[in-house]
Amino acid sequence: MADDNKDRLGSKLHDVEKAREDQWARQRDEKLLEQMRERLQKHVCPQCKQFLVTKTENGVHLHACPDGHGAWLDAPILKTVLKEHKG
Predict the structure, then answer these.
(1) What is residue 27's predicted lDDT score, i.e. its pLDDT?
(2) In 14-68, which ranges are E strands?
(3) What is the dihedral of CA 26, 54, 50, 73, to 10 degrees?
(4) Using one digit for the tens of pLDDT, what is the confidence trace for 7-19?
(5) Is the dihedral of CA 56, 60, 61, 65 positive or negative?
(6) How far apart are CA 63 and CA 76, in angstroms?
(7) Hey, CA dihedral for 22, 24, 30, 36, is it positive or negative?
């Protein structure tokens, strides 16, 4: 009986430790995602220095100057657009 209680206690302690690790990882992931979002929002137009805004035009995700000085695409998206344009 005492061994059974030890096993259950050990199992519960393991579960608590796992839950704490999961919580820590979730909080760390949220912090990293927030940092990535902030970094993305800090991209500025080289001409007017305004922050770029995220847009979707015709299904294409891009970052654009709010004053219309240009738009920037991520490399994989640019490759896809170029392939579609050729075809």
Answers:
(1) 96
(2) 53-57, 60-64
(3) 100
(4) 888 899 999 999 9
(5) negative
(6) 14
(7) negative
